[in-house]
Amino acid sequence: MRSIPAAVLVTLLFAAPVALPRDYAIHAVPMTAVTIDDGFWAPKLEVNRTVTIPHILKENDDTGRVANFERAAGKKTGAYEGRRFNDTDIYKIIEAASYSLALVPDPRLSTRLDELIQLIAESQEKDGYLFPARTIDPQHPAPGVGPERWIYENGSHELYNAGHLYEAAVAHFEATGKRTLLDIAIKNADLVCRTFGPNGRHAVSGHEEIELALVKLYRATGNATYLKTAEWLVAERGKPHPDMPPYPDKAFEMYNDRAYKQDQAPVVEQDRAVGHAVRAMYLYAAVADVAALTDNDAFARAADRLWQDVVSKRLYLTGGVGARGTTESFGDDYELPNLRAYTETCASVGNDLWNQRMFLLHGDGKYIDLFERVLYNGVLAGVSLAGNTFFYQNPLESNGRAKRTEYFEVACCPANLARMLEQLPGLVYAVGPDTRAAGTIYANLYIGNHADVKIGDRRVKIVEDTRYPWDGDVSIRLEPEGSGDFTVALRIPEWSRDRPVPSDLYRFADNAGEPPVVSVRSRNAEAQRVPLDIRDGYVRIRRNWKGGDTIHLTLPMPARRIVAHAGAKDDEGRVAIQRGPLVYAVEGVDNGGHALDLVIPRSASLRSAFRADLLNGVEVISGQAEGGRAFLAIPYYAWNNRGQGEMSVWIKEKP
Ligand SMILES: [Zn+2]
User: Fold this and answer.
1) What is the Cα–Cα distance from 207 to 49, expressed in whole angstroms?
2) 327 has which bridge partners?
3) Are strands 484-491 and 440-443 parallel, antiparallel or unpaired?
């Protein structure tokens, strides 16, 4: 290994993962095989890499998050600063930075990660335990962590922190080939697997995350103990936990509410999303993982039921989840307040992590449709265009008070968002089996890129060109080695057809207009129309592909009106506007200082136009509101970039 240059090593590591006895039938095409080079995402990823990631690294320094590790390592005196789960802000930014190193070498960033990892190594206790909030002064542990290890799992976050450590470790190992952080994670995971289980402590994590992280560690190492413990932790939820005494802090009584942590019933019996939204998303993602990797149909069915419940009764149009601020949790059926919407950025990140896994499990495009809705709206709104201020909550209405800030006391969201965006190249394509041909290449996200995809033993170079999400013309040129019989599955988003979401929660209030058009053209030949035969969300084109064959997809993108289910009282008498995957919002700054009093009658026509001068370039929608007043709407993700002011997604249709 020593003589292999780093760049080659990266490819090897991504290309040759540990072979597992069971896995998802479909695999994402690795991020290192896809280069995003479009006009929308490429600049955003550049901002993420050059502004957001360094900003968070600095905030972690300035807010004592790094100092906590220095204290645990014996390099500094004093007590643990801040919340006991602040360690995860270090782990998550290492994860984000590692993905960025896999894509763009950066020796200074690499060295900074090495330094942080060295500190983490020195903070780890001999038996693998890693929790500065206790290690700094075991006789006087930080508030909320309990007098002994593991006994306050309801609220200590010991296992939650461990989970983010493993995710960071796997990302760092895969990006750099270095085992430094991976070995720390393995030592900790071995302790966790010795401590919890059928013959150990009967407890679950008060904040899910360890489950999906153990699966990742299993995937990276092939050590089946990690999968076994992940499976046990998922199955243990809802059972009696004799080793989980009540959390004593009355200010955090919700930690003892079993529904708050999705512990109210065994997972296989759950059919309604309840409790803390981020916790729920991480658990459901792990349920999909365990279902696939242990071939457990009961878990798969539970994930399906929970998914249908979320998309039918608990999903904001922006893809956000979590209606209630007091407990950061799901509400009753159709409880979707707009001004008070909680919709934590982390919950959107979690929703995407879950939907990506549901796609790998079932191969249905409806999960990518939802992934896309969450990504372009719920996730992207979490960060400013400049990349250095963030939302924790993402309301769908503002009276002028909401404002992004540089960091938070509880800073889970910024680094979570940074690690999500950095993974985007790995979410564009996937490869799966095809009973009759060499396999299927799934074109999931329409983003301009060039890629090098392996299907069977064959490499296929792909060049994708598009202005998506501003227009729906996509061209995909294939350059297979030789020629090849395989299938290309093009996702036909639900928004381009008859409904915005796979339920009756939202519906279009106008006609779809022109249907999507698909054609294929070979070199020196006429384009051939492909019938719009959509199955599981995809048009599948199987043929003997030759170099230069080009697929053209046209997804017409009229601005469309959406209305909500009658049960969603907060949206009653209101309309939202969507164009392509983007949900729109009206802001005071574009509408004479006010947005909440706008009335856009059903009869008003909606015009769209690209404005290169506005918000780094956006397609705006305009028309005549009630009273002859002109209105202008911008993509929701871009709101709050020109100061504070009123904003609304759901606009009144009558005065
Ligand atoms: Zn968060």
Assistant:
1) 29
2) none
3) parallel
pLDDT < 50 stretches in the chain:
1-16
Gap from CA of 346 to ligand 1 centroid (Å): 4
pTM confidence score: 0.96
Residues 6+ apart with CB under 8 A from 342: 277, 322, 323, 324, 325, 328, 329, 393
- The mean pLDDT value of the chain amounts to 95
Q: Using an 8 Å Cβ cutoff, are 379 and 445 in contact?
A: no
Bridge pairing between strands 582-587 and 528-530: unpaired
Q: How does pLDDT run across 575-615, given as a tens digit for each residue? A: 999 999 999 999 999 999 999 999 999 999 999 999 999 99
Distance 408 CA to ligand 1 centre (A): 9
Q: How far apart are CA 524 and CA 280, in angstroms?
A: 53
pLDDT of residue 2: 39
Q: So what's the pLDDT on residue 17? A: 64
**Which pairing describes strands 429-432 and 440-443: parallel, antiparallel, or unpaired?**
antiparallel
Contact status, residue 447 vs residue 424, Cβ threshold 8 Å: yes
CB 652 within 8 A of CB 576: no
Examine residue 655 and say whether the peptide bond preceding it is cis (omega within 30 degrees of 0).
Answer: no
* 3-state SS class at 524: coil
Distance CA 430, CA 26 (A): 7
Contact 191, 164 (CB under 8 A): no
The candidate with the shortest Cα–Cα distance to 312, out of 497, 444, 495, 499, is 499
How far does the centroid of ligand 1 lie from the alpha carbon of residue 416, in Å?
Answer: 7
Cis peptide upstream of residue 433 (ω within 30 degrees of 0): no
Query: Are residues 345 and 358 in contact, defined by beta-carbon separation less than 8 angstroms?
Result: no
532 Cβ contact partners less than 8 Å away, ≥ 6 residues apart: 492, 515, 516, 517, 518, 539
- Beta bridge partners, 38, equal none
CA angle 301, 307, 311 (to 5 degrees): 150
The DSSP output letter for 576 is E
The pLDDT of residue 335: 98
Q: Which residues are catalytic?
A: 328, 412
| Residue 83 exposure: Cα atoms within 13 Å on the Cβ side | 15
| DSSP annotation of 457 | T
pLDDT single digits (tens) 558-580: 999 999 999 999 999 999 999 99
CB 589 within 8 A of CB 645: yes
In the structure, ligand 1 is a single-atom ion and the residues with CB under 5 Å from it are 344, 346, 412-413
Contact 76, 70 (CB under 8 A): yes
Instruction: List, for residues 36-48, the tens digit of each pLDDT value.
Output: 999 999 999 999 9
What is the 3-state composition of the chain as percent helix, strand, coil, each rounded to the nearest 5?
Answer: 40, 20, 40
- Spatial distance between the Cα atoms of 89 and 337, rounded to a whole number of angstroms: 29
Distance 345 CA to ligand 1 centre (A): 6
Report the C-alpha gap between 472 and 420 in whole angstroms. Answer: 24
Nearest of 520, 449, 527 to residue 490 by alpha carbon? 520
Q: Choose among 427, 550, 533: nearest CA to 478.
A: 550
pLDDT of residue 511: 82
Alpha carbon 46 to its chain centroid, in Å, reads 18
Residue 29: count other Cβ atoms within 10 Å of its Cβ: 24
Distance 348 CA to ligand 1 centre (A): 9
Hey, what amino acid is at 486? F
CA distance 654 to 80: 55
347 CA from centroid of ligand 1 (Å) = 7
Q: Which of 343, 327, 332 is nearest to 583 (CA)?
A: 343
Q: What is the Å distance from ligand 1's center to 9 Cα?
A: 34
CA-to-CA distance for 43 and 380, rounded, in angstroms?
13
Query: Which H/E stretch holds residue 193?
Result: helix 180-195
